[in-house]
Each structure stands twice: as C-alpha cells, then as structure tokens.
Design brief:
With 161 residues, this protein is mainly β. It has one domain (26-159): 10 Kd Chaperonin, Protein Cpn10, Chain O (Roll), CATH 2.30.33.40. The chain has one helix at residues 93-96, and strands at 26-29, 35-39, 42-46, 52-56, 66-68, 72-77, 102-108, 112-113, 119-120, 129-132, 138-142, 145-151, 155-159. The strands form 4 sheets. It has a 6-stranded antiparallel β-sheet, with no helix packed on it. A 3-stranded antiparallel β-sheet has the order 1-4-5, with no helix packed on it. The longest helix has 4 residues, at 93-96. The protein is globular, with a radius of gyration of 18 Å.
Amino acid sequence: MVAAGPGRVSLETGAKMTMSVQTGDGVIYGQYDGNELRVNDVDHQMIKDEDVLLKFTGTDPKFDNVQCVKDHILVKLAPREDKTATGLIIVTSEDKEKRSQYGTVAMVGPGRQASSGPVIPLPVKVGDGVRFRESAGSDIKLDGVEYRVVRATEIICKWAP
C-alpha cells in the first residue's frame, strides 16, 4: 500500500474507527472493489479500509504472512464430493460450476469495531467448520490451496471439529 488515510469517524457516535492497514502493507481486496486512479503516470487502486480482505508482509501473499482484518474469516474450502461411500453420483455438471459453501476456519480477524469504539469478537475460531451462502466472500489461493474470505455476518452455521 502506497498511502493510507487517517481513518473514518462513526457518523452515529463520533468515535474514531481504527485503520486495519498501514502504509507499506500488502493488501488483498475483492475483484470489483475500489476505483482506478492514475498519479504521475502510475496506475493505483483506491480502496476503502472496509474492502481490504487480507493484509500481508513481504512481496507475495502466502498463508504464513497474511492476516485477516476486521471481521474477515479465511476459510479453507472443503473438497467437492461427487460420489457417496457406496459410489452413487451426487453431483451434476451444473453442480460442479457452483461455488463451495462450506469449509474449515483457517484464520480469523480481530473482530468488528462497534460504532461506539470497542471491538466485537468473532463467533468462530480456527478449526471450526462453517457454512455460508454460495455468493458470500471472495475466493483466493494461497500456497496452491483454495480459500474463501467471508465476513462473520455471512456465516450461516458453524460446528465443532
């Protein structure tokens, strides 16, 4: 990240909201987030703090150097099963095109900051199984493994490992 603003202030309470990233952090954001901006013949992407999914150190994001921000949760997607234990086919060609809707929590952010200032802890922890809507989150690959970054509010249910 080239530059970061001072952060925003809650319109409801006047409390200053903490910034989850700083100048120099690498960031991963959604495909359609932000606005393009050209400064001194260099292309930049202006994004809101809320649109940052993960931050990382170094030059390339890897599982060992990324961190979830705010209420984002990194979910390792479960492999798609196309047969039952007895060999019955349970997936049609249309199902193969659908995005996975469940997996295991691999990493969690610190939580969502309430408009009054305190951070609200997340309702899941690393190792929990979770299910979310098909349209939820953004798919990413780290170290060749498929993940989805979802917000805590997109989780439909959870279960213990």
